[in-house]
Amino acid sequence: MEKQGRQRDAEREQLAKSKSLVKNKLVVAAIALVCAVALVTGGYFTYSAYTANGFLKSVAATGTAQSLFASDLLTGYMSAPSNDDLDRAQRSVTVYPSSGQCSFTFSIYNYLLSNSNFCNDKNVTYTLTVEGHGLDGATWSYEPQPGSSVTLPENQPTKHDYTVTFPEDKLGHTYFVIRATVVSGDSPGTELTCLAAKVVPSKKAEVKTAAVEGALVDETDENTFADYAACNYRVTVTGAPTSVTLKWGEHVEIDPFFPINHSATVDTATRTATFTMEPGSMIVNFYRVDGKTPDDWKKLGISVTKTPQTRTTETQ
User: Fold this and answer.
1) For 183-238, how does the pLDDT look when each residue is reduced to its tens digit (9 = 90+)?
2) pTM over cut 0.70
3) Is residue 312 part of a domain?
4) By CB atoms within 10 Å of each CB, which of 70, 111, 226, 281 scores lowest?
5) How many CB atoms lie within 10 A of CB 35?
6) Quick one: how far is CA 139 from the chain centroid?
7) 198: closest CA among 298, 77, 304, 112?
């Protein structure tokens, strides 16, 4: 009897091992299938950005992302900003007068500008208002003017460009308040209330050499970077094409597609990127490093400067 009992115990143990082995094989097969589907459909393993108490995590992506509702000029707000909020976070834009008129353009979009595969997988609908101040009755306009609400459709990379035009002689006196207000019932693709900014145009400075400046697009007194999984940094070059160097701290990492899209040299050890930029502005995406939750925008350590020229000494 004792011998038969030991034999039954051994058989049960062997059966359990067999079931465990089959289960492990099924898990491996499932993972392989997911990878194969991702490759066949043009997907890849990458980071997906989440805002509003979200975080970065590694996922199998097939060309979509979430919570993408953004602008190259306007800032995202979780609640409607007051005029004081907009005053504290006002944006400056450089304009180039022509035939007595000035203009600037801003964009609203639902995808990552550096990679359109990262697109909001839910609809976002907004209404746009542009208010001109200090124009003293002068004629001004913005085009196109939506007749009603505008929808950024799910799973379709979409960018709407709007151009504001006003008389040159109003430079230094005028500013514009722009709001893209979310239609909450029709916008499952964002938790933001609106994108907004007070925009102050200024004339292009007369410079003989290149100048470089940078600013965080999303920074306001109302929010902290802890509310976001990613941020936008605007780099502006004036005067002439020049080599610039971006630097960032340990809490963030640069968009992995940036080196390819901008022919940049990126050193992850020193957290720097060097590239040549034409006069104008561009947006650079940075992502929060997993496990890092800085409570102050300054702790991101993002900055941009002209690349120092290396001098060589010739020997005779």
Assistant:
1) 989 999 998 999 999 999 988 665 556 789 998 887 777 777 777 778 889 899 88
2) no
3) no
4) 226
5) 14
6) 34
7) 77
